[in-house]
Amino acid sequence: MSTFLRPRVPDVQNADSAWAICPFCGPHKQCLPPDVLEPYATRLGHISGHRRVARGDYLYRAGDAFTHLHAIRSGDVKTSRVSADGEEQIIGFNMTGDLLGVDAIHDGRHRCNAIALEQSEICTLSFTPLQELFLFMPRLLQHFLQLMAAEIARQQNAIILLGNTRTEQRVAAFVISLASRYLALGYSPTRFRMRMSREEMGCYLGMTNESISRALSNFRRQGVLNVDYRDLEILDIAALRAAAAGLV
Amino acid sequence: MSTFLRPRVPDVQNADSAWAICPFCGPHKQCLPPDVLEPYATRLGHISGHRRVARGDYLYRAGDAFTHLHAIRSGDVKTSRVSADGEEQIIGFNMTGDLLGVDAIHDGRHRCNAIALEQSEICTLSFTPLQELFLFMPRLLQHFLQLMAAEIARQQNAIILLGNTRTEQRVAAFVISLASRYLALGYSPTRFRMRMSREEMGCYLGMTNESISRALSNFRRQGVLNVDYRDLEILDIAALRAAAAGLV
DNA sequence: CGAATGTTTGAAGGTGATCAAATGGGGTGG
DNA sequence: CCACCCCATTTGATCACCTTCAAACATTCG
Q1: What pTM was estimated for this model as a whole?
Q2: A152, A247, B3, B246: least surrounded by Cβ within 10 Å?
Q3: 3-state DSSP of chain B
């Protein structure tokens, strides 16, 4: 990286609140390595806020002017768009550590709704001052670019999933995706509660809630999963992986 | 924007070659407004190169180390990934003005293949020096962020298309997408040649080449399109839009 | 505790995939 | 420049998969 522009952030302690360092994912710090985060914490704290949202609340709506990025500190959120005929179409599910709203950088207007699936804590980041911080903090900028690129890569996976797989394969891949994200957050990857309805899963995966239900039931009959409504346990991860790879 | 970091680029004429200003899309300049581009041209020129590729050539391969971004100066390119079972899965089609490879910023390694659909002219942009330029050129950075966000938005459209539409609707939307991109490039939006095979279209749209062919034939029978192999003419844009909106 | 919503399972029907074959272009080598 | 061959495209027939419609049951939240 360039040596001529080194962060000139004062090395001030800022321990008054955990919220102050939340903009890049708070306690888990998975978005930004601690050694990078530390000197930025103070400045980032100045441009961030936080809110609590209840199940069903909107973080932002399609059409809203884009002013802030939204980071999930805890909880689960879905992002969706509403088509011309008024039907909701889910773009993705997000959980602790995810950063929402970057797509709105394009034209300064949100094109998605972000809706809480349960009570959640949200950090808001004012984007204009963040952009100015980038000029002082090359590693912060680099990190942000990597974040956006990771989002693109994730969406590529979704495109492949939707275009080139059958229902059971798709559901298996989705369950594995959830498991690996819970693992990354330090939760059990084999037992967790799915926060979205079958309807919402189906909307995201391009199938009906009935097909989702049937696929999960099939996996249960095969001894691969233990499904009790939204509680899920992975019994045979190898078989699940095989199903996700299309080896049926 | 910040006033303390204004571009300090020497105002040097740099007219020796059109290639020198190619990094952000050359003659069409659609990526960067001329008044922004002008002062950057010299510096950008220093970090850019160019190549000519023939039909079937790889711009880069999945697994390659990421060093350069690739901008299409002319021609058409497809990006794809190869699944575990060795099948090609097309992520997108790109044409003049598109910037490829941003997804590799995530971990410094390309995850896609980029393959020329026909003879093309490609600009290469060394990413490390570009990152340093960002620190001097806030508007260039802002523009780049907008570019990446636009890519995310485009992929969201693809996800919706794949998940929530039927074949005819999907094909109609694809044709409209091609038309609007040709329009933006100054070409006829109603008569153009499709650069990809039915097979490749199908792979991208999550259907078989036969289904693509049938959908196009149906539109021809209805007087909506004139299809002659890869040559396409839009006869009834209103009907096509209606089909793309799912109003069948 | 009751109503509304979410989930499971069944049966029937439609859409798109698969298999197959004929036709037409385009690229390559002579 | 032409002819050939390979491959893309079109069209048809059959079939599997998933959707649709329907009903029973569980859960959650007021």
Answers
A1: 0.86
A2: B3
A3: CCCCCCCCCCCCCCCCCHHHHHHHCHHHCCCCCHHHHHHHHHHHHHCEEEEEECCCCEEECCCCECCEEEEEEECEEEEEEECCCCCEEEEEEEECCCEECHHHHCCCECCCEEEECCCEEEEEEEHHHHHHHHHHCHHHHHHHHHHHHHHHHHHHHHHHHHHHCCHHHHHHHHHHHHHHHHHHCCCCCCEEECCCCHHHHHHHHCCCHHHHHHHHHHHHHCCCEEEECCEEEECCHHHHHHHHCCCC
